Structure formats: structure tokens, C-alpha cells
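worker-3 :: picked 4-aminobutyrate--pyruvate transaminase
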Amino acid sequence: MTAQPNSTEARDMAYHLHSYTNPRKLEREGPLIIDRGEGIHVFDNSGKRYIEGMAGLWSVAVGFGEKRLVEAARRQMDKLPYYHTFSQKAHGPVVDLAEKLIGMAPVPMSKVYFANSGSEANDSAIKLVWYRSNALGRPEKKKIISRIKGYHGVTALSASLTGLPNNHRSFDLPLANILHTTCPHYRTGAEPGQDELAFSRCCAEELEALILEEGPETIAAFIGEPVMGAGGVIVPPEGYWAAIQDVLRKYDILLIADEVICGFGRTGNMFGSETFGMRPDIMTLSKQLSSSYQPIAALMINDSVYEPIANEADRIGALGHGFTASGHPVAAAVSLENLAIIEEKDLVGNVRRLAPHFLGRLNALERHPLAVEARGIGLIGALELEAADGAAAGATGARVGAILQRNGLICRNIGDSIAFCPPMIITAAEIDEMFDIVEASLGELGQQAAA
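worker-3 :: C-alpha cells ->
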């Protein structure tokens, strides 16, 4: 009889298929088992403490171990642990959360639809856009434009929107009617001597050329993150969103703002759309909505989107879309408490106050011999490193990520870029501690390279 694995690490390797992980590498090296969290820190099952420099997955705004969220979940579990929102049913937490989000929206919005992840929210947004086009008698108006290096999820549809090769390879993606335009990365995309405004105009001209080539009557929507997250923390150049929106208005194309990472304070305003002057027709939200204490996502739609959809659903008899856990009462209750904490503790203000210090420490790393570029806004940033001679793309980033983790800092290497997105409760002293570890780890890498 084959012996059964007994340690947590062994059982994980035996039974668990991980997300965004090389399974064979996991088999060779084993997992890091995180046991608990407190504030900006997490602890593994040996008791080692780490600064969580990515707030989990860009998401734990209020930090780990927030007792108010635990208690909000407990109260709701005790009262109504589950109910759905099908067939004209609702419950108090989902009604309260929908009302709260409409009141927070940076532009007029009409309705909120709830899902369980950013992927589902973006998937749902595109389905509703297609439904709207049919309702308006424009069945040909179905194409969606996304961007190279944009990230929008991992369902078949949202992964198609994503402009990253590993989300497409061997999955037979992208699906039809999904197009990709220029990544607005100034350093890599601009011509010599071209300033940011000129580069932004160039991005808008390339978008317009794509629209004209495909036929404006076939393009339904453009989707974009205010700041690109998983594509490497790409901050748009000056004038970018103004130029893009001019083109979209010219050709009657909806704007979907993917606020899954930027929403609820990350860029120094409640929404990234405010930071960059975006006026979306649809907004998708998740992550910091509940600080990821519960799986929940939302999309908000304005009247120009809602009214045709409502008319079409009335004609058919129902809107044939929904998830079992859409607007789950526990997730909604936790989200409401999480938003209350963000407001009461002025965490958006904390981001604004600390951003100069955070970005100052980040930008100082650009002087390191291995650094190519530092970029960021608010409390989100990345340091891009030079690939070592002969090394595969991403190998340097992976080496640095491993050194950082060994030294007590969990970050995320995106290719050869190291991303930072700490909980919004972080202090100036903790920012210093985080970047001190980064500096020391880069020193270790340099010593290894010189050896």
C-alpha cells in the first residue's frame, strides 16, 4: 500500500493544482504554506514573518486579520448565511451594497450587477454589451478592443480580453471578435524625442486606425485598466485617456473601466477613473471591494447600457445570466464593512500622503546597475530589471523574487519587473522596511552575478 503524504507541503503537492504556477517546478521545490496574517504581514507554517508587498493579489486594502471584517461575516452567517438574487429575490446586504456603490461611483451609474471575481465581472460586462447591441438592432456591433499587456481575467472570454501570451497559449484563445491595440508604455513604445503627449496621440491614432480597418459599426466597446497591473504596472502617459476617449466618442464605442486593481483607493483617489479623468459607461470592481476577505465582484452600468438591456429582457421574458453566489449575503456584508473601514480610517488619504515617500524609495532603486525603469502611482509600482546576459526573459525577475521571499518580503515578479502593491494601511516606516529589503536583495543578486 502506497504511503499517504502527511505534511501540509506534501499533501499540497499531491492533490492541489495551483494557479499561475509551473506544476513541475512545484513538484521539485514545494509550496510556501501561509498560515496566518496580521496587518501588512503574513506568517508561514514555520512561523517566519513576511511583509506582504502585494497585499495578497493587489487586494487586501485594510490588511490581514481585521477583526471588524471577521465579525461582519460572523453576524451575517448567523442571520442569513446564503441566499440568491435570481427570480426577483434579494436581501438586505446586497441592496445596501448596490446603493453604496452607486453613491460612490465617480460618474453617473444606474445599476450594479454582482459576481464572484474580476474575471466573472469582465466576462459579464462583455456579455451585457453584446446583449445591448442586439437590443439596439445592431447585431454586427460586437467587437471588443482591449490592449496588449492588459489583464482582464481567466475565463475563456476575459482571458481573451487579456493581452498576455501565457493566457492564450495552449488554451485556443483569444476567441473571435476580440481585438488588441497598443500598450501605452512610454519607455518602450515612444519614438526617440517623442514626448508623452505626442506618444498618447500616437496611441489614439493607432486605435482609430484599427477601428476604421475593422469598421466602426462593428466595434461595441473598449476595455482598459486605468493603470495596467498584471502587465507590469504600466502607468498611462500624459494625455492618454483623454485622447483615447475622444476616439471612442467619435465612433459611438462604450468605455469599460476595469477597476479591479485600481478601485477603492489604490491610485490615490477612490477610483482610478478619477485619477485619469475617465468617464466609463461600465466599471468592473473586485479585490479591494472586500479586501478579498470574501470572493465578490461587481460591475456598474450607466443608463445608456441598462435601458436597452432591460427592454430586451422584458421582450424575452428574463435576463438569462447569473451565478449561484451573485451578491452573496456574507460577501456583501463584509464588503460594506470593508468600505466603512476604508472611509473611516481615510485609507485613500493615507495613499495620497504616503505616495511621495513610496514612489521616492521606488524611484531611487532606478539608480541600481541592474535597474531599467521604476514606475508607479499612489501605492502601486514596479521596478523593471535588466535581463542577465543569455538568461531567458523573466529569469532575473524570478531570481530576485526568490531572494526577496527568502529575506522576508513577498512581491510578484512580472517577467523581469518586480511589482509592489502593499496594503493601504502601511506606514512610512513599513515602506522603508520593505524597500530596505529590496535594496539588500538587489545587492545579493549583484554579488551572485559578480561571483
